[in-house]
Amino acid sequence: MSFAAILFDCDGVLVDSEPISLEILRKMLTDLGWPLSYAECKRLFIGKSSKEEIALIEKKLNIKLDPEWQQAFALRRNQALRQHVVATPGIYQCLKALRKIWPRHLACVSAAEKTKIILQLDKVGLTDFFDGQIFSGTQVPHNKPYPDVYLAAATALGVSPDHCAIIEDSITGISAGVASGATVYAYCPDDEDPTPLLAAGAHHIFNDMQLLADILQPATSSNP
Length: 224
Description:
The chain is of the alpha/beta class. Helix content is 46%, strand content 11%. The chain has helices at 18-31, 38-45, 50-61, 67-84, 91-101, 114-124, 148-157, 171-180, 195-199, 212-216; strands at residues 5-8, 106-110, 134-136, 164-168, 183-187, 204-206.
């Protein structure tokens, strides 16, 4: 089919941020009495917003996390991201190629707070690829795994959701993309198991960002 827009998740897709954020979270959860392995932490929290993370922790530990804890987590996480976050391998080449085909129809669509999205994109030099088209799931009625933020992005770009390709890497994000009616491409590096992503409804799996432009180009016959 001919795609009208390409919508990218942020964490784990545009930036290699998830190991950084999850390590901060693991340390702080251990201090609360909930030690988790990295794999366990990833399974529970990847793709979720901070609000959803807080709700999960409170339910598991049967406690109420005070605002100071939440602020401390956000501060430590953001400081670590400013110091250490890097772009996903191959994403610069990918976005340069895609911008030639969809110059005004690339967007970043994330469950994270908009300040965190911009912090990361600015840090790795990807902000300009999206020409202000940056959407946060915290600014719609229901965050991922609901489709609201993807539907909002499609509306803002003036395209139908079923003419969008969505690039995701988590079960939560894939669920949102599928629910929106778009075609979902799941980024899954070679050392990851694609089975859960396919089970979540991903239509295609790929493992190299530098290949994405070639994967998407045959699906379109003309510029939007």
